[in-house]
Amino acid sequence: MRFILSALSILAVAMLATTAPTSTQAGERYGKQKVVYHINYPGGKDDKKYQGAMRNIQNHINAVGAENLDLKVVIHGNGIGLMQSANKKGKVQTAVANLKTQNVNFHVCNNTLKGRKISYKELYEVFDEDIVPSGVAELSHLQQQGYTYIKP
How far is the first Cα of the chain from the last one, in angstroms, to the nearest whole number? Predict the structure, then answer.
């Protein structure tokens, strides 16, 4: 009986592996997407929350395909810690750098920078064109343009 159950388990796993959607199938299922991820919270112990958010974004890309996504991340308030943490070598930096190579755009709130007296030059790979006047206004603006809002 154990042998039969083991054989059935192996067969089920093999069937799942051969029926997993390809990138083309995923594109057909999900189509083109415009998405904005909202980060305004601290990273927690060892930046676990930031790592989780970056993993969510990567999983989204993996499911839909980078070619089918226009994906932006809006950062303000305590979320500024994401780009500060990414400025140090480690998992957060690796995740952010990897997402940037997949055309994920990170937008940083100028109100947060001014309020906290932080220069964008102190943040990981943030440039003048990445700064938006207001994080919350940017979220509203993007939603008006048809971006789906996600808060990981």
Answer: 44
Residue 121 lies in a domain: yes
Print burial letters for 116-149: b (CB count within 10 Å at least 16), e (below 16): eebeeeebbebeeeeebeebeebbeebeeeebee
Give the pLDDT confidence of 66-87 residue by residue, as tens digits: 999 999 999 999 999 999 999 9
Residues of the chain falling short of pLDDT 50 = 2-20
Domain-located, residue 82: yes
CB 107 within 8 A of CB 132: yes
108: CATH = 3.40.1260.10
**38 is written with which tokens?**
């909202």
108 beta partners: 75, 131
**In-domain check, residue 12:** no
Q: In this structure, are residues 107 and 72 in contact, taking their beta carbons and an 8 Å threshold?
A: yes
Token output for 110: 């100028």
Instruction: Report pTM.
Output: 0.83
Any domain includes 138? yes
Count the domains in the chain.
1
